[in-house]
Amino acid sequence: MPQYFGQLPINEQPWQTLSAIQGISQQEHSVRFDCGKSCLQINVLASNLIRVRLAPTGEFTPRRSWAVTNDAAWQIPSFEVKETETTVEIQTEQLRVVVQRKNGQIACYDSANRPFAIDADPGMGWRLGTTAAWKKIAADEHFYGFGERTGLLDKRSEVKTNWTTDALDYGSLTDEMYQAIPFFIALRPEVGYGIFFNTTFWSRFDIGVTQPGIWQMETHTGELDYYIIYGPTPAEILATYTQLTGRMPLPPKWALGYHQCRWSYESETVVRELAKEFRDRRIPCDVIHLDIDYMRGYRVFTWSPQRFPHPGKLIQQLAEDGFKTVTIIDPGVKYEPEADYSVFDQGIAHDYFIRKAQGQLFHGYVWPDKAVFPDFMRADVRQWWGELHKSLTDIGIAGIWNDMNEPAINDRPFGDEGDKIWFPLDAPQGGAREETEDVALDERVTHAEAHNLYGSMMARSCAEGLEKLRPNERSFVLTRSGYAGIQRWSSVWMGDNHSLWDHLEMSLPMLCNMGLSGVAFVGCDVGGFASNATAELFARWMQVGMLYPLMRAHSALTTAQHEPWSFGDRTEKICREYINLRYQLLPYIYTLFWEAATTGAPILRPLLYDFPNDPLTYTLHDQVLLGSSLMAAPIYRPGVEHRAVYLPEGTWYDWWSGESYTGPTHILAHAPLEKMPLYVKAGAIIPMQPVMQYVDERSLDPLTLRVWQGDGEFTLYEDDGHTFAYKDNAYTTTKFRINTEENQATFEINQREGSWLLPSREVIVELVGVGEQRLNDNGTARQLVFNL
Ligand code: GLC
Known about the structure:
The relative contact order is 0.09. This protein is α+β, with helices and mostly antiparallel strands. It is globular, with a radius of gyration of 27 Å. The protein is built from 13 helices and 52 strands. The protein folds into 4 domains: about 5-245, glycosyl hydrolase (family 31) (Immunoglobulin-like); about 255-495, Glycosidases (TIM Barrel, Alpha-Beta Barrel), CATH 3.20.20.80; about 605-680, Golgi alpha-mannosidase II (Immunoglobulin-like, Sandwich); about 700-785, Sandwich (Immunoglobulin-like), CATH 2.60.40.1180. Strands 35-34-32-29-25-24-23-37-36 form a 9-stranded parallel β-sheet. An 8-stranded antiparallel β-sheet has the order 4-5-6-7-22-19-18-15. The structure holds alpha-D-glucopyranose (GLC). Alpha-D-glucopyranose (GLC) binds near residues 292, 328, 495 and 554.
């Protein structure tokens, strides 16, 4: 049913637009344009970053920037304002913004005068509490990011809504997902820019669907506010975008190992048997996740006395065998008056749960049946919830899996099948009862503004709580829902996928688009969550899963068992081999995590990230790079043993055979079930370790540097892997370089830098296809020569 306002449905009301600029005033880092009753403001925050704001009423309301750093945090770059008869131009070192006097429309140009982010008619507009902007799409432009998205890589000709939803049974056509990240990257050869739509309200991008050649963004709030980030490369865009929205902290190194999960390993006995299988079968595993059945009747922060009578003892024994335990926590608190359920009682006593505008408690239906929802917008609620984790950390829980935090409110496993419940958009949220550093008293909002933030704020409460409870130990935090900037608080998985070949295929572009949205620590449920995998699907998924920044296998209640040994010997062997390879690559992968934490670079990335001027990479969804050296071209179809592989410019080596190819070219790879095609770039240096059954099993000795001929360098990052000492510079980096000439290759190890002390160890330098040399690594500079 369309909503009617006066005679016309809302989407047929005319847009109001800016009238001619009447006055211009310049403040420290902004230029303000007065256009009759309304006003446009452009803030220059860096030479490649501008913020555009439009206030239809002429008055900017104080903005709550939930996900972005304050404008004041940016060092004001130098810029010039130039006026012509028809335009006002803002020029920074990297870009020029041209504003039309007659209608306030804006256009950007790079230093070679290439246009980007050009307003299309009507430029910017507003109607009935909605604001929007329109811009031109260049003929050869492609679109990425948009947070969590199904389908393939490029989102041109698609409509993408930003509204967090429990996207159960999603498929390639699903629009609203668990995550809502209103950010994208537009790319064409030589030119790339990012748009961050600074709104937590419902918003939507229409990439050339309603009007071919024009993209539009629209949000249900009265002011328009967005950032334009010039690249031109995706790497530069993401560096700035993550400076704006924050970067991930380093997780504990064990979180990079293999995680095993199921809904549910339902008792202490089952969990012990599971752990034993891993060790007996020599399949590495670091983490066991406990799903909702560990609780007493799905009451968060409780344990089932029947199934898990001695959780502390269990967790300690698992720890002795090298396993970390992660428990699930849902936001829905069982509605249970007078039952001595302390989480409910405390929440009621302090009025921590969300109420409707009229004052009654809001409730939905989730695992514990009728449930109420903490208001994570409030700092006091976040603190309370964070402290509740003490009962878990006290017995050794090492990480928390935050689920159902879109929030899901319509699961009635045991209740009636009534009408769907909606979260009332006018429910008041936020507004701490006490003013604190990060929440001021006046920040009371409605659910319409807070909805997309629910998961992020829950994850924040969890991450901050865990850091207080374990002040010198990094914790693992996982969340299903989140908003832009979620990377500051948590890793993310892509919710409830299915054991289907197309979900395996889709997992790569989904994770790549998350990486291109600033969220690097991401994964999909390996093997597929719902439905039942076949042996072949499971084997292929384990190969692909080895590439996921978060490698967790998970499966749903009533589905077939999905452990590495569930499908017979052949599949088990494949699982072991690829999990082993993951563990061997950990020194490399951990360094990629450090890069993500310091620069915002995705860990898993599409080829366009490293080859942004090669249009053949623009729609290549089924090949990925793990860091910039290793490229995978997985098989994701049943019965398929061959596939086409695109090798971009440069020399590439087959990981398995050492065969070399000169790109750009297409090759046909042969990939029987035991093999996932893998390639390395010439000049690649990949640090590797021996297979371990878990990350902390023993120290990294020997370190093997697999090196391929060519010219290249790699900086290895190392620290203790589990404390926060790295923040006080307790880490080391070592730069390696390979240089190849006609008859010899020279491998240089620079002097180790940094203050973390490493024990001396053996280093094996293997120049692939040529030979290896061994040395005792004590941190001093070395040079090795290989005759070719
Ligand atoms: C949700 C989660 C899933 C979990 C299940 C039970 O469906 O997405 O991962 O296993 O709830 O907690």
